[in-house]
Amino acid sequence: MAATAVTPAAAAPAPADAGSAGSTEAGSADGLREVLFVGNNWDGTADVLAATGDHARIGRLDVIPDRKQRLREIHLNPVRLAFFLGIRATVGEGHDQYVDDMYSTPDGSAVVVSRPSFADVVSIDLATGRINWRFPVSGFRADHMAVSPDGGRVAVSASTSNTVHVLDIVTGEEVGSFGTGDKPHENVFTDGGRYLWNMSIGEVNNALDAPWLDWTKGDRRITVVDARTFERVRVVDMRERLDAFGREDLSDAVRPVAFTPDESRLYFQVSFFNGFLEYDVAADRITRLKELPKNPDTDEDRTTWVNDSRHHGMSMNPEGTKLCVAGTMDDYAAVVDRATLREGPLVPVAKPYWATVSGDGKHCVVSESGSDKVTAIDFATGRKVVSVPVGDHPQRVRLGHVPAGWTGPSAG
Questions:
Q1: Which of 181, 207, 318, 320 is the most exposed, fewest CB within 10 Å of its CB?
Q2: In whole angstroms, what is the distance from residue 393 CA to residue 42 CA?
Q3: Nearest Cα to Cα of residue 381 among 399, 357, 364, 360
Q4: If residue 70 lies in a helix (H) or strand (E), which one and from where to where?
Q5: Tens digits of per-residue pLDDT, 82-118?
Q6: Chain-centre distance for alpha carbon 39
Q7: How far apart are CA 50 and CA 256, in angstroms?
C-alpha cells in the first residue's frame, strides 16, 4: 500500500513533544498551542478544545472533505460496498464511521485521521482543511492508531486484514507493517519508541457472547514488535494468564490499556467486564484485578452491549498514581487509586467511550458518546470539573498541537 499525495505535505522540522503533560496551553516559542482533538465519529468532524483549564472549543475540522469521491468509489465496488454497509449495521450502530483516531504532525500543520468506513488514513492540512495525502489500509476498515514518541510515525490497525501499518506521519509513506491476531485494535509504543504493542480483540460484532462461546471470538493476543525492523519479539496470550490467575470466566480480548510511567505494569480492560486487571510485564503474569460497580439500570443481556464492551477507556495521570476508567455501558467514569485500587465517586456520564489526560495532567477527559459531550474529571478529587458540547458520537480524544491563534481552516 502506498499513500496518494493530494497536495504537497510540509517538510517536518525537528520532532516536537507530541502532547506531554505540563506543556503550556498558550502559544509557545515554537508557535504552537497544545489542544485536545475530539473525533466525532458519526459526524465526520473533529472538535479542537483547549488542552487545559475549561477545555473550551477552539475550532472544528471536517475530516471527510472527500466524502463524495469516496462514496462514489465504494458504490462502484460491490465488495467494498458490502463491507461499508456491514460496518454501518454492526460496529457503527446504524451509522457510518468517519473518524476513529487522530494525531497532529510534529510541526502542528496537519492532523492525521483514521477513517473506518473509508478504510484509510488521511492527513488534513489545518490551515486549509484540504487533504495532504491518503493511505488506503489493507482490507476494509481502519481502526485505532498510535504515534511514536518522536511524533514521526503513526501506526494504524487494519482490522479486517489482521495487519498494522506504520506510516511516516508527514509523507504518508508506509515504513513497515506486521501481522497480528484477529481484529487488531489498540496500539502503544513503549521504551522510547523501540517497541510497538498491538492488542487484537477478535470478533466483537456477533451475538455469540455467552461465556461458553468465547472460543468462537478468534485469535486474541498481544503482539509486540521491534518498531525499527517490525520483527515480532513477544506474544502475550492473556487466556493463559487469566486462567493461571483463576479467572477462566473472563474474556481474553484486551481492550484499552494504560502503562505505568516506568512501563513495568500494564492495566487493561477486557470484553464484557466491569473493571480492569494489572499485568506485571517482566514477570509475565496478572497480579491484581479491580471490579467496579455495576449500574443496576444496565441491561445484563451481553448481546446488547456495544461491540462486546462493558467498560471501554482508560488513562493514567502522569505521576502514575491514579487511573481513570470509562464505564461505557454503566454510564459513569471513575478515578481509581492505583496503590489501593479504591475508586472515587462514580461520575455520571452517558456511554463514555474513551479516557485521556489533559495537557497539564490534572484532568481525565472522557468522551460521552451518548450525549455528545466531553467531560473533564479532576484526578485529585475524582469529581467532575466541566462538560463541553461536541459533535455527533465523540469517541477518541487525543492531545496534539495546532498553530498558535488557530480557530479553524481558512478554506474548505
A1: 207
A2: 6
A3: 364
A4: helix 67-75
A5: 999 999 988 888 999 999 999 999 999 999 999 999 9
A6: 10
A7: 24
Please give the share of the chain, as a percent, with pLDDT higher than 70. Answer: 92
Give Cα separations from 86 to 80, 135, 189, 233, 389 (angstroms).
10, 21, 31, 34, 29
Q: Report residue 290: phi and psi, to 5°.
A: -120, 115
pLDDT tens sequence across 338-383: 999 999 999 999 999 999 999 999 999 999 999 999 999 999 999 9
DSSP 216: G
For residue 72, give the H/E element and its range.
Answer: helix 67-75
Q: What is the DSSP letter of 343?
A: B
Question: Given strand 363-368, what is the order of strands in its sheet?
Answer: 352-357, 363-368, 373-378, 384-389
Look at phi and psi of residue 108 and say left if phi exceeds 0, alpha if psi is from -120 to 50, else beta: left
Cell representation of residue 318: 502522569
Confidence label for 11 from pLDDT (cuts 50, 70 and 90)? very low
Predicted confidence band of residue 224 (pLDDT cuts 50, 70, 90): very high
d(CA 164, CA 176): 9
Helix (H, G, I), strand (E, B) or coil at 375: strand
Which one-letter DSSP state was computed for residue 87? H
Give me the phi and psi of 318, to 5 degrees please: -60, -30
Least confident of 12-16, 248-252, 324-328, 359-363: 12-16
Per-chain mean pLDDT for the chain: 91
Alpha-carbon distance of 360 to 35, in angstroms, equals: 11
Amino acid letter, residue 277 = L
CA dihedral 68, 70, 73, 79 (to 10 degrees): -130
E-strand ranges in 94-183 read: 101-104, 110-115, 120-125, 131-136, 142-147, 153-158, 163-168, 174-179
Q: Are 310 and 351 in contact (CB under 8 A)?
A: no
What's the DSSP call for residue 369?
T
Q: CA-to-CA distance for 273 and 250, rounded, in angstroms?
A: 7
Q: How are beta strands 347-348 and 332-337 bridged, if at all? A: antiparallel
Report CA 151 to chain centroid distance, whole Å.
Answer: 16
Measure the CA–CA gap between 227 and 191, rounded to whole angstroms: 10
How would residue 304 be classed by pLDDT, with cut points 50, 70 and 90?
A: confident
Query: Is the per-residue pLDDT at 213 higher than 80?
Result: no
Helix (H, G, I), strand (E, B) or coil at 243: helix
Task: Work out the number of other CB atoms within 10 angstroms of the CB of residue 223.
Answer: 22
